[in-house]
């Protein structure tokens, strides 16, 4: 195995957006069982360090493969589309940015749990649509350029859903 291989290759999984989380977790357990530093506790310092590097690499790969935003970013990059912050600045459509700002304002103005839950339902529906579109663009059409734009949109939606969840917790406390 090579530390530089992509996460999909490392886990022996196809380079697809639609992944079975159970398959990712099962492959992670298998890799960790094989490469965990505890297995080389009596080995040389170099072997222990290598095992630690592998354990970290495997955990990072599991995180990326299990996170839809990170997985979409990774697939776009593997297909030649840069996904760094500079590329993302102009990638998000202005129409979506306006919608996102309206959602943020609605969250700021929401005074009760029901209002926040209504907003969450609307944003969650948009998240589901975006995930499905990413699946189509990456797995069926192989259109990484269009997928990159949606991956950035998804990153905004996920952060907004986190803010909504925090607001719900505060209101319910």
UniProtKB/TrEMBL annotation:
A GO CC annotation recorded here is: iron-sulfur cluster transfer complex
* One Pfam family it belongs to: HSCB_C
Which controlled-vocabulary keywords does the entry list?
Chaperone
Q: InterPro entries, alphabetically? A: DnaJ_domain, HscB, HscB_C_sf, HscB_oligo_C, J_dom_sf
SMART domains from the UniProt entry:
DnaJ (SM00271)
- A Gene Ontology MF term for this entry? protein-folding chaperone binding
Which residue numbers delimit the J domain? 5-70
List this protein's GO terms for biological process.
Answer: [2Fe-2S] cluster assembly; protein complex oligomerization; protein folding
Q: What does the sequence similarity comment in the record state about its family? A: Belongs to the HscB family.
Q: How does it assemble?
A: Interacts with HscA and stimulates its ATPase activity.
What is this protein for, i.e. what is its function? Co-chaperone involved in the maturation of iron-sulfur cluster-containing proteins. Seems to help targeting proteins to be folded toward HscA.
Protein name (record): Co-chaperone protein HscB homolog
Q: What is the organism of origin for this protein?
A: Azohydromonas caseinilytica
């Amino acid at each position: 195995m090579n530390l530089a291989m992509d996460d999909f290759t490392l886990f022996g999984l196809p380079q697809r957006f639609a992944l079975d989380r159970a398959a990712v977790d099962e492959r992670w357990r298998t890799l960790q069982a094989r490469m965990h530093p505890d297995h080389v506790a009596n080995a040389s310092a170099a072997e222990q360090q290598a095992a630690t590097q592998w354990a970290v690499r495997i955990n990072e790969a599991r995180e990326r493969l299990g996170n839809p935003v990170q997985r979409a970013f990774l697939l776009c990059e593997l297909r030649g589309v840069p996904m760094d912050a500079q590329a993302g600045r102009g990638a998000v459509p202005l129409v979506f940015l306006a919608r996102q700002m309206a959602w943020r304002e609605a969250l700021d103005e929401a005074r009760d749990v029901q209002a926040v839950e209504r907003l969450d339902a609307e944003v969650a529906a948009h998240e589901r649509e975006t995930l499905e579109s990413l699946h189509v663009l990456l797995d069926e059409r192989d259109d990484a350029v269009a997928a990159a734009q949606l991956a950035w949109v998804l990153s905004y939606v996920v952060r907004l859903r986190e803010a909504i969840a925090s607001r719900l917790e505060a209101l319910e406390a």
